[in-house]
Amino acid sequence: MSETQSRTDIDLDPVTFEVLRSSFRNLVDRMAEQIQRTCYSFVIYNRDFSNCLNDADGNTVMQGSQDIAVHVGTLHYTCKETLEYFEGNINPGDVYIVNDPYLGGTHINDVRIMRPVFYDGKLIAVTQSNGHWADVGGPAPGSFNIGANDHFAEGLRIPPLKIWDAGEFRKDVANVLTTNMRLSEDRMGDMRAQAEATRIAEERLLELVEKYGVNTVMTAFEESKDYVERMMREQIRDLPDGTWRTQDYIDADPNKKEGFVTVDVEMTIDGDEVHYDLSGSDEYVGNFLNATFGTAFSGVIAGTKMFFPDVPLNSGMYRVVSADLPEGTVVNAPEPVPVTGSVAGAYEKVMNAIFELWSEVLPERAMACAFNLEYLLAGGRDQRPGRDDQEFAWYDWMAGGWGGRDGKDGANATAPVFGAGLAVQSLEGQERDAPLLTSEHSIVTDSAGPGKHRGGCGVRKGGRMLACENSVISYCSDRARSVTWGINGGLPGIPHGVTLNRASGESEEMGTVFSNVPIKEGDRFVRPSSGGGGFGDPLERDPDAVLEDVKDEYVSIERAERDYGVVIEPIDPEICEYRIDRSATEKKRTFIRENRSAWLREDPEDVVARYRTGELDRLDLIRQYGVILDWSTDELLERTTEQFREMLEQRARSEWKQ
Fold first, then answer.
1. What is the H or E stretch that residue 378 is in?
2. DSSP letter for each residue of 265-308
3. Please, what is the Cα angle at 119 between 117 and 124, to 5 degrees?
4. CA–CA separation, 145 vs 135, rounded Å?
5. Model-level pTM?
6. Dist CA 554 CA 556 (whole Å)
7. C-alpha angle with apex 235: 233 to 241, nearest 5 degrees?
8. 71: closest CA among 22, 18, 20, 32?
9. SS3 539
10. Where does the Hydantoinase B/oxoprolinase domain start and stop, copy by copy (predicted)?
């Protein structure tokens, strides 16, 4: 039944509606259980997947309770495009596959499987499963190719295809797809696992139809969307009308001079609706950090949903929340611009900008910027005993810190805002699967952005290559320069990036984006994730709270003094015995308060000269002086520093009490 058709004359009583709505949620969550128990890929096993129930027009009726945020705003677009593509040729027993990012999707690793559901010969719904496949072909293992100038150099782009046609498995089509991907057996296994999940959902939905009647279930579809729309409108209606605007940044466009790439977000509340205008964003960049329309819209929805946790998510919300995403910008890159790294690029910038906007409207739910999503990928031939030179693909992401909040510190070492349900991968499982040994995995001291309520702490993870041949690594992240920022006077976290230490003794800072770097047995790598940005003036943080952070090794004694103005004397660190020098703390805080505005205006060249002599360290540059370097060469980035200082002026200095 389409949105424009008249409603059935069946009025659902509240009990039946709640039973069916809960049944829809259970149906989708059962899909998740099926995938997690039968998938082949370690990536999907760690919950990089989502499922949904769509109506016959492709509108989302229900999503899973632990779905990945980046998928939530896109599954309905994919479904609508597929239904349109096969219009007139949609049959019982069909199953479709698509990963096309330009048809409302995200990136080519997110592969969607859809099954139309029929009752008495009529299409009544579509069950859909989306999984992040660890490889979909292309020149780089994991399909993250920073050198791609277009999607042809990223991997296999799949338009809507039938892989089951009226119940018959099209093995030829499936083989064409999976044989163009690394670890093709795993890819085939994931395809079947997702397809089976959609079958189980179909089965469960038809059970509901038999029990309650098709008209009652179809009415519940419509009521579920209306329910979400009504809840959202009621909450928006209670808020003040107005327009708010902010920016977040991607580190740089490799095809241009240094300087941030702006993601500009303007939010308008008008009555019971919210509209976002991202037309002030810069044009798409010369690497794969661009977002498609679907990805950016998903960022809009996920960022908004974070501030309305009690409102369920389906297409009813899309009647209330809208967005302008002009084509040709970094938030709506056109075909064939590469977009595989979008979730670490434009997507999370949209989300964090929206966090800041809603923090002004709903200050009791305010949150500073969260750490940046990152992926480290390795692939090659496994030379360990008994592995028979088999191919391997190691695909890793890390936890990190979320931003400080109004009245509360940020969450430590948690999943990225990209997907709060994403699991931290088992190190033991990874080590069985690939010739890499995890050498460290720990909280990073001083990674949290200082604030009255500090950000959550980031994590450092290191690894060593074991016996391997013809192996390479790639990395996708951001915020080496647009460092995770604070709000309401809070300060930034730490830069992202990978350091590669060769077995030969050579060491190199690799930055946040690279592909197909050769790596050999004995080579080591380490990368930290940032903590979240701080909330509020660090000089207003309770000194006793800073002391507790020192005891927990979240903050060092040195940075307790430099960032918080709290002077702490070690008595017996082995038993966590320290003492606050109250008098020295009062003097230090007065000194910082009187000088910190001037520090942000010092000549950057003079600051860098002091850094090179060792007088200042990297965090001094970032948090006190607002100076950004190319961290691999220590070259001053003049335009980037100017923009970073402007950001600190707006988010930090303007909020400080002088």
1. strand 375-382
2. EEEEEETTEEEEE-TTSPBPPSSTT---HHHHHHHHHHHHHTT-
3. 50
4. 11
5. 0.94
6. 7
7. 85
8. 32
9. helix
10. 13-538
Q: How many CB atoms lie within 10 A of CB 238?
A: 8
Q: Which residue has the tokens 């964090």?
A: 352
10 in helix, strand or coil? coil
Query: Distance between CA 461 and CA 396 in Å, rounded?
Result: 10
CA–CA gap between residue 579 and residue 459 (Å, rounded): 27
Mean pLDDT by 10 residues, the chain (658 residues): 41 92 96 94 92 97 85 92 97 98 94 98 97 95 93 96 97 97 96 98 98 97 97 97 98 96 98 98 97 96 94 95 98 97 95 98 97 95 95 93 97 88 87 95 98 98 97 97 98 98 95 96 97 98 98 98 98 95 98 97 98 97 98 97 98 92
The residue type of 47 is R
Residues 493 and 531: beta-carbon distance below 8 Å: yes
- CA-to-CA distance for 369 and 359, rounded, in angstroms? 11
Find, among 544, 572, 553, the residue nearest to 564 by Cα.
544
Picking from 511, 559, 553, 513, the residue whose alpha carbon sits closest to that of residue 538 is 559
Q: Is the omega angle on the peptide bond into residue 336 within 30 degrees of 0, that is, cis?
A: yes
Q: For the CA atoms of 330, 495, 400, 478, what is the dihedral angle to 10 degrees?
A: 20
